[in-house]
Request: fold
Amino acid sequence: MPSLFGIAWKNLRRKRLRSMLTIVGIALSTWVLVSLLGFNQGYENSLNKDIDNLGFQVLLTAKGCPYEAATLMLKGGTGLKYMPYSIVDSVKANPQVEEVTPMLMQVVFDPNKGESGGVTAFLGIDPATYPKMKTYLIFEQGKWFDKPEAMEAVFGYEAAELEQREVGDLYLLPESDVEVTVVGVLKRSGTQDDGTIFLPVRTVQNVYKLENKITSIGIKVNKETDLAAYEEELYKLSDVQVVSMAQVKMTISNLVATARVMVMSIALIAILIAMVGVMNTVLMSVLERWQEIGIMKSMGAMTSHIFKLIWFETILLTFVGGIVGSVMSWILATVTDKLIRSVLPYSPTSALVQIDVLLALKAIGIIMAIGLISGIYPAWKAAKIRPIEAIRSTDGEL
Amino acid sequence: MKRMGFLIILLLILSQGLFAAVGCDLNDPDRDVKRLFPSSTGYKAYYMSITQKGGKALLAKVEKRLGDKFTGLYETADVPYTIYEIYKDKQVTGYIHGVNQKGQYGGIQVFLALDTKGVILNLYYQKMTNQAAKSFRSDDFAKQFKGLSMKDFASYNPSTGKQEGSLAKIKNPAVKAEKDFKATLRGVKKNLILMQEFGYIK
Reply:
């Protein structure tokens, strides 16, 4: 004797085209659902990655020291305050700190600049730590310095354009007769790094007699760190000021939260469409088999048997549709990614749609739950059919 | 509004651009035109590039006349040149035109003030970095170029750097900056060739 499951499968195969179309409908809904959930996951991860690529979350400078080249220029290149290099070790000692990078800004008067000379700023950086924190800095030409005391320079995009420098050119450090070789020119990054001339920190210390001095420290903390609490902690160090990226991060978090609400709303619509589609198909199938179900009941089928039979059909439809949709979304993830990128004004650099097995299983689970819910009414409708009335009539009615 | 501001800053931070050709125009045209042409009453600026005016064929012609190949990021066929046409009342009295030229320490910018026949009236470095930049920027050095024209530079070969004829009289103001001196001569020749090829002087 065939099982209820077997009969359900057979019933679906009897109306192949309709079953196929229903499965396609469910698959499309699953595709939308998986892609949206994948986007929700990927967008947040990708944005976080881009934020991490911004470099350090906290900038520590000597109290009163201008920390941006623009402020420094406004002050006519004056007002630089220094910290001892030993402060790097004090900051590093905190277990919440993932990485630190010391920096030394130096401003000099360049008599060759403009009509009557002008101010030029350099940023002394540690080649071992700075590039790791600023991974978004990509080279147009060349590379970073080889050694921390190398007589070499890397130019930001705008600085290279203004100074008309390319890799291999010599650069004469103003206020000294020291020549450095340009070893790298960066691509445009849209940050203040574009206008910066980078030198190895020890080179700046040696050339401008600033041994063991730095102007700022870039700090990258662990993801779990409470930034506000950590900043308070930093203020325990004497004569320092803390510049935080916390506000930028908060804005991004708000952006992600807004995106999540939008994505979930669309996902809900997809779920509702799938639900109505499944219910409609199964209900139509029940109405068409009105007499058949009546005969089954007259031959001894119990109400629970009919209910289960129709329910199984619904579950089978949603299960197959869910699997097809998940596979489809996985295969088409790249296309979906490109589609989303084409409409978003700004897209993070990493994959926008991130689909994994867990996400696919979650989506199949949701779709099957939809099947279970939307199958209740048709199954109940079929289960309560009265055999004699059903046999007399040709079609069922709602 | 505040959030929008943040968004714009964020987009600026995270966006990336393209590498473009760098032109050579006067930093302060009103001031510079008046200084190079004291009797002028106005000027018009025209923009053009080798690519625009004749493409590869023109580039090959300019290189052949120059006796040297164009090299580097700041000396390409798509570099936009600015030609300032100088007026005294309604009459064109001359031109100012500058070129990028690779020097000992990066790029130098050599501007020429020319009369309508293409005779050099003045030479002006808008940008130059070296220990002897002051000597190069001096009036004494610029004076050596006054009265010269394309015919004086026609036989000058930048690859040999040999000065002949009227060019032999031009003295290097700083022996240590020989590279920038040769670069200046090359820059002046390139400047004059371009002015001829762009059709401003004969």
The beta strands of chain B are 42-48, 81-88, 91-103, 106-115, 120-127.
